[in-house]
Specification:
alpha+beta, four-stranded antiparallel β-sheet, 5 helices
Length: 172
Amino acid sequence: MKLKLLEASIEHKEAYIDYINEWEDSGEDIVPAASKRDGMSYEELLKNWKENKGEEVIEKGFVPATLYFLIGESERILGALHFRHRLNDELLHSGGHIGYGVRSSERNRGLAGNMLDMALEMIKCMEYNRVLITCNDKNTASAKTIEKNGGILEDVVEVEGELNIRYWINLR
């Protein structure tokens, strides 16, 4: 299967609506949260995602970040990955540089690993030496994906009463 990791564009509107409807219908937390609809139109989301890449988001308590979609054959959105360009104290503790998720109908096919691998190659080209990725200790699938992509266990920390595993991935 040919896969692409792309930033959202107007051409992805129908695919995004299909993707986000599946997430919302599932009742699961949408991962990454940056891909949520939050009552906005797709055009408003595109504007918001573009603005979130800039330094202005720091004033809102965020860090610059880019949202990517994993696009499969027939331009279907299979998953999303949110790359945070730097870490603040909160992200260093519990969020990391990267958050990702695969829609429920496409899971258990190795797509998360493919998406993470593609993202790490892009990030390496951006001259990053390493990235932090975290996951809940109950999310064994994500932990395996991170480890398979070179994740080295840093530690396990408590976040809001739950355990969060922190991994560093060396890119150089």
